[in-house]
Amino acid sequence: MTTPGDALLCYCRPGFEPELAAELNERAAHAGHPGYARTERNSGFVEFLGADAGALSQALPFQSLIFARQKLTRIAELRDLDPKDRITPILRALETTLGNAHTFGELWVEHPDSDEAKPLAGLARAFGNALRPVLRKNGWLKQFDDSRRARLHVVFLAGDHVLLAVGEAGDSAPWPLGIPRLRMHADAPSRSALKLEEALMVLMTEKERERLFREGMRGADLGAAPGGWTWVMVRQGLKMISVDNGPLREHLLESGRVEHLREDGFHWQPRAPLDWMVCDMVEQPRRVAERMGTWFREGWCRHAIFNLKLPMKKRWDETRLCLSLFEEGAGKPLLVRARQLYHDREEITVFATPPSTAR
User: What is the pTM for the complete model shown?
Assistant: First the structure.
């Protein structure tokens, strides 16, 4: 089903609005949907206007976007709302835009993940509690949450300024604000473990995780110290070679599943092909992209997840270049997904695998 809308609404990491805007502008043009991106620095979201938003949403699947945490179809913008009655204008906008034959599976009342919008969190929670029963009474919302159906998003930009948007099941992030909430494990060697845990959730489907991680598989962690990514892979059932001149946390070695090689992870290569390679080294992104391509070209690994640390300027251009260098260097067809994760900072995370393994 194509949702009628007047804009594409995407959330992002505050400060990366120009990168997301550039990505949307370029991808929309390539898809034959002219328009323009509108945003403000540190707002935490970008709107793409001037095109058929529903058709554009279908042309730009969420999984293909790199700098977007969430992808929605905006159906209305409401300004100058009366604090005494925000619900009536919302019901009127839904009827005007969608008619009476649309029932949503869930309601999410949100705000952008920005310093300016975070004080709206309390209002969003309270308003959601007030709006939900009204929507159910009027037939706009299922009586019980159904994640298989489209979601209605009410996005507060201010107390009197709201965006209404629709998130399609299977083509949007299944977490409020597009942020998977992860807790730091007590025995994780470093907070970097959260990046890889999020990557497994965001860049792979549940079926792919079940198929691509099996007990006894072998992998390598390049630039491993102190061992956060090694720890995550061991928890997936792998036996790991952790390559770094620095020390690992002692309990990793006690597991019996980790071999620590005190070598330069950037130049090391395995003696036999591995199932997995992961890498979170602090290196120039182009060098990392080329080295990752070499790993696939030489057949040293079958699947990989790695980070690319981006420069301060022209980050979208650098992203495109690095992914192109990687795919050219690999010299073989690969399925490649990339995303700036919530736990990433000035970087993106890339998952690569043979296309036959991801279904």
Answer: 0.93
